Amino acid sequence: MSVVTNTTTIGAIEAPSRRNTELALLAFAVVIPVFAYLNVGLAIDGKVPAGMLGYGLGLALLAGVAHLVVRKWAPYADPLLLPLATLLNGMGLVLIWRLDQSPRLIATSMRRYGSFSPDAPSQMMYSAIGIAMFVGVLLLLKDHRVLQRYTYISMAVSLVLLLLPLVPGLGMDSFGAKIWIRVAGFSIQPGEFAKIVLAVFFSGYLMVKRDALALASRRFMGLYLPRGRDLGPILTIWAVSLLILVFENDLGTSLLFFGMFVIMLYVATERTSWIVMGLLMSVAGAVGVASFAGHVQARVDAWADPFSCATEGVAACQQMTQVLMSFGSGGILGTGLGQGNSDLIGFAANSDFIFATVGEELGLTGVMVFLLFYGLIVERGIRTALAARDPFGKLLAMGLSGAFALQIFVVAGGVMGLIPLTGMTMPFLAYGGSSVIANWALIGILIRISDTARRPAPAPAPSPDAEMTQVVRP
Amino acid sequence: MSELTLTVMRLGFLAVLWLFVIVAVQVIRSDLFGTRVTQRGSRRQEARPQQAGRQAAAPPQQRGQQNTGGGRQRRGAPTKLVVSEGTLTGTTVALQGQTITLGRAHDSTIVLDDDYASSRHARIYPDRDGQWIVEDLGSTNGTYLDRARLTTATPIPLGAPIRIGKTVIELRK
User: Where is the composition biased (Low complexity) (chain B) (predicted)?
Assistant: First the structure.
């Protein structure tokens, strides 16, 4: 009975939900830090560390809660984002705990502050708050397009967040950079949260204005030059980021915000001229500010030639030389966890300079693998942006992953001596509550967008008049 | 703790980290989504045996012809029917001597989801010599071969477009 054979149809593949893949990867991502914990304990004390079970269970509990929430409320989300973030967070905890064990750092702290408190337990608490933030984002934000309504509110909020550290009495000047505020005994870095809020503003704004920014332009030497009045937004953002640089002394934050705007402008308008202009403006701004702001000047000196000024006793140069030595002694395969001397970096070893510990104890191989972890998160973010069906979601996912990528570049580049060092932290890895919490919220938003993007489209409604046309015979 | 154990752990840890990256990349590889081509002929055949019987019963003389002439395929004869425009674009049906009915009726071989198509719009069948013929079944809006509206059963040249509403089909080798 040969009626219909070999009928071929081209249709959309429904992306499977991939939740079980995520669970398997998550288990892997919990086992790796536990292994690292064991390795550190064996290397330092020669015995299995006492807190290993508690630590492993704690991390597994956090990961499990996050997974169940994703399974329930974002079933089609990307399967890689959560395991990668969990792995980085877990490895950060291990590295912070490892630096807590260092007798040198304990002695330094005793000498400087008269007391020593380990940072790993508080980082564990921050991670728990971060996961709670992630869960909160997924529960409260049922549809990311809601954020579009708050475009101009988020502009105001982000400006307030950025300017908070300058408010007298609230902001605190710590080691030159004014990027912290102190509220009720906690020091908070508002810039980390401003990153997310600003991405919301940029995507809402560019979604509406991108046609004007893309189409009204003149062609000059192969570049589309925008009209003078369309330069307003980029000039405003540039001015704000220069103000941050001058008054808060923080190159990283300023670079992050301006860079994020240029990336989103490029994505929204597909005009290379914005990138060229953005690069020129940031170079001009950085050079201009570096030539008269003392703090920035010191950072640039420490970057240009750390070894000559370190002998003069400049702290920034000494840190830089210690970090470079740390990377150098790691070599290709590293000294092994718990066996390096990265604790010789006396200052901010577990926050700004934590990547030096990775470089020394895991070597080039480890540094590359960590950069790949970050790269995979960024890749999944961009994939989400590609798959998203609405322009706001596209821009938001792109902006968030762009900001994430820029932050990695600024921190890793600064620590490795590619660009002047800034006071930012490696997301998830470094010690610091604001950073961990804000980045978990960022991952939460990306997971929400990817769930919407990968959810199979609803089946088209059956046509109501399907049977109404009848054959009319003459 | 012996030096050897620590070295093994150090290298093992790096290997595990890289293994995670490799697994993650494998997940990305298997995670590509977009469009795909599915074979659905066999499933359809099993699902609707009674309709298959009805369609086969409709033109009895052709069934007899198929049994005698089905084995030899003429040189240059079309082997498949391809939908080249419309909502079903990309659908192909292998031509194996059976009658193909087109229309909005659910038991049609090709179910057209088109406001301009009638329930039983047209049929395509091979004649005694194996030449494929298209015949309009008295549709409201007509069946067009190239530009001409069909009035009688007409032989189909290879590659000539047959238009029904927004759908265009053609026979190919």
Answer: 48-66
Q: Would you tell me how many other CB atoms lie within 10 Å of the CB of residue A368?
A: 16
User: Could you write out the DSSP letters of every residue in B71-128?
Assistant: SPPPTT---EEEEEESTTTT-EEE-SS--EEEESSTTSSEE---TTS-SS-EEEEE-T
Q: How many independent structural domains does chain A possess?
A: 1
Within chain A, how many helices (H) and strands (E) appear?
Answer: 17, 6
For residue B22, the one-letter residue type is I
User: Which residues of chain A from 29 to 68 reach within 8 Å of chain B, CB to CB?
Assistant: 29, 32, 35-36, 39, 42-43, 46
Identity of the residue in B20, B56, B88 whose CB atom sits nearest the CB atom of A87? B20
Give Dmax (Cα) for chain B: 94
Evaluate whether residue A472 is within a structural domain: no
Domain that holds residue A230: 2-457
Residue linked to tokens 């980045």: A439
User: Which one of B10, B32, B65, B149 would you mutate to disrupt binding with A, by most A Cβ within 10 Å of its Cβ?
Assistant: B10
Amino acid residing at A35: F
Q: Tell me what ipTM this predicted complex has.
A: 0.85
Indicate yes or no: CB of B56 within 8 angstroms of CB of A3. Answer: yes
The per-residue pLDDT string of chain A (474 residues; one tens digit each, 9 = 90 and over) reads 444 455 665 555 555 678 888 999 999 999 999 999 999 999 888 888 888 888 899 999 999 999 999 999 999 899 999 999 999 999 999 999 998 888 888 888 888 777 788 888 899 999 999 999 999 999 999 888 889 899 889 888 988 888 888 777 676 666 666 677 777 667 788 888 988 999 999 999 888 888 777 776 666 666 666 666 677 777 787 788 778 777 777 777 888 888 898 899 899 888 888 888 888 888 888 788 777 766 677 778 888 888 887 777 777 788 888 889 999 998 899 888 888 887 777 777 778 889 999 999 999 999 999 999 999 999 999 999 998 888 899 999 999 999 999 999 999 998 898 888 877 888 999 988 889 999 999 999 999 999 988 887 666 666 665 555 566 666
Which residue in B has a C-alpha nearest to residue A81's C-alpha? B24
Its pTM stands at 0.74
Which chain B residues contact residue A453 at CB under 8 A?
none
Q: Is residue A272 part of a domain?
A: yes
Residues of B in contact with A36 (CB under 8 A): 13
Q: Is residue A389 part of a domain?
A: yes
Any domain includes A474: no
Is A457 in the B-facing interface, judged by CB distances under 8 Å? Answer: no
